[in-house]
């Protein structure tokens, strides 16, 4: 069973919509309130990055199963400028926008699996999964 | 409108109306129209089709007001726009079909089709404009209402104020929070401000960043900030994100926040002994 939701991000309201879709699916899968908060926060970070750096993109949220475990997978896709320095972007406190610089490393800690793929001037795809324990 | 077309439409008016009424009934099964009573639906259909045939008999100015009033009433009753657009599409189709069947050669010409198109398009534009205008108006009013609820600063004791935050914080609201906070601190001569985030569903790095900036600004105008209403799950996500809130005091509930704010201003709440 695959439940997939697509949310287009092109304004700040898209971030809210993505987050609500994520919370709904996380609740349906059976995540507790702390994990729900982790998942929605992670979605919020990824969606905000899209809005901030790429202007527009997509958040896909789906249910996944692997080796008997259920989980939620978030895929953030954009065709923005890409990330210049992949190593530094995962360091705490590194920011190019004057923010806290905790977004991507934070998402990595909030979720279980984290995958970042980015090509300069092509776009960025981030996949993050949280497994139900 | 071409007088020939007008006359031929009026001649076949009854026929067109009857076919349309039959066709429009088929929409009835559609989603949004179901909670409207049968008589109501019937009456509105009749009125709508009458208005449409009136449009060819009257001047533009005259029927415009009439149609606008009709649309406004539908909007108030919550009829979907879909009813109007589909109704008009159907009306155009039926009119063209009915008139083609008359055998008049003119009724098969491009010119004739264009006349009919223009006539219906004008009406569609008018009605759709009414609908979208009313939606824009609603959105605007709701935005204003939201802004009023956005970020109030409430003085609770001398020198102590509370700012309860409820709902999503976007960039615009963050700006408002900062402004209201600083203005309020000066106006109420607050020494301690409590920011209550019980009602904020998600605290991500941007929200945290704005709160940190706001409290830093409050510090600059000589007051102190206490962050209250941090729910357990929010506390965990803040730690996971690696956000450093070590610089300013936090309390789990507004009550505890007020107690420590009173302490900071050398006061306390005591129970009166009889």
Task: Explain this structure.
The complex is a heterodimer of chains A (133) and B (274). Chain A is an alpha+beta fold. Chain A contains four helices and five strands, in the order βααββααββ. Chain A has helices at 12-29, 33-54, 86-89, 103-110; strands at residues 4-9, 57-66, 69-78, 113-119, 123-131. A five-stranded antiparallel beta sheet of chain A has the order 1-2-3-5-4, with helices on one face. Chain A is globular. The model of chain A has no long low-confidence stretch (mean pLDDT 90). Chain B has two domains: 3-147, Orthogonal Bundle (Globin-like); 154-264, Transcription Regulator spoIIAA (2-Layer Sandwich), CATH 3.30.750.24. Helix content of chain B is 64%, strand content 9%. Chain B has a five-stranded mixed beta sheet with strand order 1-2-3-4-5, with helices on both faces. In chain B, strand 2, helix 7 (171-187) and strand 3 (192-199) form a beta-alpha-beta unit. The interface between A and B is medium-sized, with 24 and 21 residues. Chain A: GO terms for molecular function: ATP binding.
The CATH superfamily of chain A is known as Histidine kinase-like ATPase, C-terminal domain
Radius of gyration of chain B: 32 Å
Helix content of chain A: 25-40%
Low-pLDDT windows of residues of chain A: none
The coarse overall form of chain B would be rod-shaped
Helix-strand string of chain A: EHHEEHHEE
User: Overall mean pLDDT score of chain B?
Assistant: 85
The CATH class label of the largest domain in chain B is Mainly Alpha
Could you give a short account of the major beta sheet of chain A? Answer: 5 strands, antiparallel
Q: Any idea of the CATH topology of the largest domain in chain B?
A: Globin-like
The level of helicity of chain B is 55-70%
* Count of the separate structural domains of chain A: 1
Low-confidence stretches of chain B: none
Q: Count helical runs of chain B.
A: 10
CATH architecture of chain A: 2-Layer Sandwich
Beta content of chain A: 25-35%
The CA-CA distance between the termini of chain A, in Å, is 19 Å
Domain unit count of chain B: 2
């Amino acid at each position: 069973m695959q439940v997939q939701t697509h949310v287009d991000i092109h304004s700040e309201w898209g971030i809210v919509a993505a987050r609500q879709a994520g919370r709904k699916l996380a609740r349906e899968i059976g995540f507790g309130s702390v994990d729900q908060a982790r998942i929605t926060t992670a979605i919020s970070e990824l969606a905000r990055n899209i809005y901030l750096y790429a202007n527009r993109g997509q958040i896909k949220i789906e249910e996944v199963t692997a080796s008997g475990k259920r989980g939620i997978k978030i895929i953030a896709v954009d065709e923005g400028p890409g990330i210049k320095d992949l190593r530094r972007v995962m360091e705490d406190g590194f920011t190019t926008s004057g923010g806290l610089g905790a977004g991507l490393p934070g998402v990595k800690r909030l979720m279980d699996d984290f995958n970042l793929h980015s090509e300069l001037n092509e776009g960025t795809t981030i996949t993050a999964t949280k497994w139900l324990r | 409108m071409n007088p020939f077309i007008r006359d031929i439409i009026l001649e076949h008016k009854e026929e067109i109306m009857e076919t349309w009424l039959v066709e429009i009934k088929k929409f009835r099964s559609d989603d949004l129209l179901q909670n409207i009573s049968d008589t109501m639906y019937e009456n509105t259909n009749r009125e709508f089709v009458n208005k449409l045939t009136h449009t060819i008999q009257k001047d533009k100015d005259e029927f415009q007001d009439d149609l606008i009033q009709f649309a406004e009433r539908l909007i108030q009753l919550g009829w979907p726009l879909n009813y109007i657009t589909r109704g008009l599409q159907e009306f155009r189709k039926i009119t063209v079909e009915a008139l083609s069947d008359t055998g008049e050669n003119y009724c098969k010409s491009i010119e004739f089709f264009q006349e009919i198109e223009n006539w219906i398009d004008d009406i569609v534009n008018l009605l759709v404009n009414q609908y979208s205008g009313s939606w824009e108006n609603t959105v605007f009013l709701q935005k204003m209402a939201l802004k009023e609820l956005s970020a109030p600063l409430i003085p609770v004791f001398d020198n102590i104020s509370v700012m309860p935050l409820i709902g999503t914080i976007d960039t615009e609201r963050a700006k408002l929070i900062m402004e209201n906070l600083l203005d309020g601190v000066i106006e109420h001569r607050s020494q301690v401000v409590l920011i209550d985030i019980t009602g904020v569903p998600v605290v991500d790095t941007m929200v945290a960043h704005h709160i940190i900036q706001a409290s830093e600004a409050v510090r600059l105008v000589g007051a102190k900030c206490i962050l209250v209403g941090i729910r357990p799950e929010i506390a965990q996500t803040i730690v996971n994100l690696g956000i450093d809130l070590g610089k300013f005091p936090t309390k789990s509930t507004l009550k505890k926040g007020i107690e420590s704010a009173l302490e900071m201003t050398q006061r306390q709440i005591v129970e009166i002994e009889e």
